[in-house]
Amino acid sequence: MFVKIPKEYLSTFNRQLQTQLYNELMHDYSFPRAVCRSLSELFIFYFDLYFSSPHKEGQIVFHAVSKDVPPGVPVTK
After folding, report:
1. 25: which of 34, 36, 37, 58 fits an S-S bond (Cβ 3.0–4.6 Å)?
2. Could you tell me which of 7, 25, 18, 27 has the C-alpha nearest to residue 45?
3. For the chain, what are the domain ranges?
4. How many CB atoms lie within 10 A of CB 77?
5. Angle at which helices 10-29 and 33-51 pack, to 10 degrees?
6. pLDDT tens digits, residue range 6-33?
7. Which long-range contacts (CB under 8 A, 24 or more apart) does 29-35 make?
8. Complete DSSP assignment for 2-62
9. Do 25 and 39 contact (CB within 8 A), yes or no?
10. Over the stretch 41-54, which tens digit does the pLDDT of each residue have?
């Protein structure tokens, strides 16, 4: 299930997720606090890197093509 999180709540959501990861690593796996903090920050960094949108909120992206190009042609061509 995918939930769209409003921009104004994103930092709060990330903090909650990071805290949850930290707590689970500490309680379930008994890692030291420094390791839990480092791993939870690393997980959040990779989530942001690979799963966040490369575009800003409200940004419009144009792909200009000639009027002679038929519909359905991939953008890469």
Report:
1. 36
2. 18
3. 7-51
4. 6
5. 140
6. 666 666 766 788 888 888 998 999 999 9
7. none
8. --PPPGGGHHHHHHHHHHHHHHHHHHHH---HHHHHHHHHHHHHHHHHHHS-SSPTT----
9. yes
10. 898 888 877 777 66
Burial class (CB in 10 A: 0-12, 13-18, 19+), 38: middle
Rounded to two decimals, the pTM is: 0.53
Residues 6+ apart with CB under 8 A from 47: 17
The two structure tokens encoding residue 51: 């799963």
Q: What is the token pair recorded at 64? A: 């200009």
